[in-house]
Structures are given as C-alpha cells and as structure tokens.
C-alpha cells in the first residue's frame, strides 16, 4: 500500500487533502463526521471511496466540490485552496431528479455552457458532442420525465463533462439503477474517462464497483470516520484478495445499504 500522500510517480497532485476534519454545526452543537483525511490524487487518477452508511463519504465529496468548508485542515485543487464550487470540479449525485425538468436533454447539457458565456449555437454543438459520447443523441429532444433512470444519469454525466472539468466527483451515481444498467454505465464511464482524460472521485457502497472503477480504493470507517485503508487496485488477478480484504474491513457494516 502506498502512502496516502503519494501520487503516481512524476505526477503533481491535482487534489491534495491535508489533515482535513469535516462536519456540521447543528442545534446540538458541532457534529464531526470525518476526523482526519490525508490524501493526494494525480491528474488522471481514479479514486473510489467506500465505507458504511453515515461514515462521511458524501461529506468528503461535498468538501472537495467546495460546498462545505473543512473544520480543520486544507483542501487544495491544482495548487489553490478550495473555497467554493468551480467548473474544474463537476458533481454527479445519485438522485434521478438533478436535471432541470423543463429543459430538454440537449438543453440540460447546453445550459452550463450558456451560463459560462458560450453562444447558443456553440453550446448546442458542444452539447451534441457530449450526447454522442454518452449515447444519448437519439434522446436529445426528450425531457427528463421521458427518460429511464439510466438515461437520466447519463444526461447528468454529460452535463457534468460539458465544462471539461479536470475532476469528476460522483456520489453513488448508479446506486439506484438495476444491475444490468449499472454494469453498462460502469463500462461506459471508464471509456468516457479514458477519452476525456478526467480524474475521478467516486463514492460507492459496492466493493465490486469500487474495484472496477478505482485505481485506488479509500476505505472510511468509524464515527467520526478516518481512513482505515487505501488500497491499490492492481491487476484483475489480484482483485480476489483485495475483495476479501475490503469485505473484512467493512464486515461490521454489511447489510446496511442506505445512505
Ligand atoms: P455517507 O455519505 O457516508 O452515508 P454522510 O456524509 O451523508 O455519510 O454523513 C456523515 C455524517 O454527517 C452522518 O452522521 C450524517 O448524519 C451527518 N450529516 C450529513 N449531512 C448533515 C447535515 N447537513 N447536517 C448535520 N449532519 C449531517
Ligand atoms: Mg452519502
């Protein structure tokens, strides 16, 4: 296992998380969700994050997105402190209702481009390229209520990629899909990341998904949580062993499949 702060040799980290503590101010006082996370991610690395429900996976993702300020420690992206959301870090959530219901598929993907100053024609052109990438060209004129869950998630991915983020943040995006659709989207996501050379932080409940999509798997556990392991995924033949180790680490919490 590599040190948490090592990235691939020769690659400066795209994301650096230093002794970060995360939590929320509540009516009952401060609730610390994540106690101490130290991590660096290279520019074309894929990190999957796994851990029991409530261990702070979404909290960590929100902090990287710039939606939540750390209670302690620092998060830097491309050498600069993260203080707010930015187009360089796009987020895809689990929720099927993250699209704008009154806009077409094309309109949903073109929208962030328009907001960022692209003219209508250029925005639509670029959006059509992304619909092609996510196999949605035939659905360009449909509205979200006319789409399956898998299609909605592909629109969300296309929209997230529209601004060419350097890092894609995904919070259990396939968690509510049937197994066949999920497998298909996992494969497509890998191809899309290869084509667009985008780094990934992907939260999941599934050990198989974590091993399939990650170069490394970050295991969080405890309340407040800490990093209990950072696995290098390695070759497919070594994955049986990795799966057994991850199962052992998560053993106390198996069967709990809620958020
Ligand atoms: P996970 O995604 O791993 O299931 P979360 O990051 O959603 O976990 O939550 C981590 C902890 O923080 C939990 O104890 C949860 O109840 C708490 N929490 C999450 N969001 C909030 C919030 N907005 N206010 C207060 N506590 C929260
Ligand atoms: Mg969550």
Q: What fraction of the residues are assigned to beta strands by DSSP?
A: 25-35%
Number of helices: 7
Order of helices and strands: EEEHEEEHHHEHEHEEH
The major beta sheet can be summarized as: 10 strands, mixed
Give the bound compounds. adenosine-5'-diphosphate, magnesium ion
Low-confidence stretches: 254-259
From the alpha carbons, calculate the radius of gyration and give it in angstroms. 18 Å
Give me the oligomer status: single chain
How many distinct beta strands? 10
Shape: globular
Mean pLDDT: 90
Structure write-up:
The chain has a ten-stranded mixed beta sheet with strand order 5-4-1-2-10-9-3-8-7-6, sandwiched between helices. Helices cover 32% and strands 27% of the residues. The protein has helices spanning 57-65, 105-115, 120-133, 149-162, 179-196, 207-213, 239-249; strands at residues 13-26, 29-42, 46-50, 72-77, 80-81, 89-92, 167-171, 199-204, 216-222, 225-232. It has seven helices and ten strands. The radius of gyration is 18 Å and the shape is globular. Helix 2 crosses helix 3 (120-133) and helix 3 packs across helix 4. With 259 residues, the chain is of the alpha/beta class. Adenosine-5'-diphosphate binds next to strand 1, strand 2 and helix 1. Magnesium ion (MG) binds at residues 57-58, 171, 259.
């Amino acid at each position: 296992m590599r040190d948490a702060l090592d990235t691939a040799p020769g690659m400066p980290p795209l994301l650096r998380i230093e002794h970060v503590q995360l939590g929320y101010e509540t009516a009952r006082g401060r609730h610390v969700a994540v106690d101490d996370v130290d991590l660096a991610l290279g520019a074309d690395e894929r990190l999957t994050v796994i851990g029991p429900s409530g261990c702070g996976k979404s909290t960590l993702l929100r902090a990287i997105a710039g939606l939540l300020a750390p209670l302690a420690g620092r998060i830097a992206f491309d050498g600069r402190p993260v203080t707010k959301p930015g187009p360089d870090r796009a987020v895809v959530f689990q929720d099927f209702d993250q699209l704008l219901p009154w806009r077409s598929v094309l309109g949903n993907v073109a929208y962030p481009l328009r907001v960022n100053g692209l003219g209508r024609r250029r925005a639509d052109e670029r959006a059509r390229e992304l619909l092609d990438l996510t196999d949605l060209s035939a659905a360009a004129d449909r509205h979200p209520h006319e789409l399956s869950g898998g299609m909605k998630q592909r629109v969300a991915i296309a929209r997230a990629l529209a601004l060419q983020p350097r890092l894609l943040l995904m919070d259990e995006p396939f968690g509510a899909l049937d197994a066949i659709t999920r497998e298909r989207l996992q494969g497509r996501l890998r191809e899309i990341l290869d084509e667009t050379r985008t780094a990934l932080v992907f939260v999941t409940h599934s050990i198989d998904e974590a091993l399939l999509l990650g170069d490394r798997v970050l295991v969080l556990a405890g309340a407040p949580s800490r990093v209990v392991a950072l696995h290098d995924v390695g070759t497919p033949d070594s994955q049986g062993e990795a799966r057994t180790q991850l199962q052992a680490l998560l053993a106390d919490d198996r069967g709990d499949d809620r958020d």
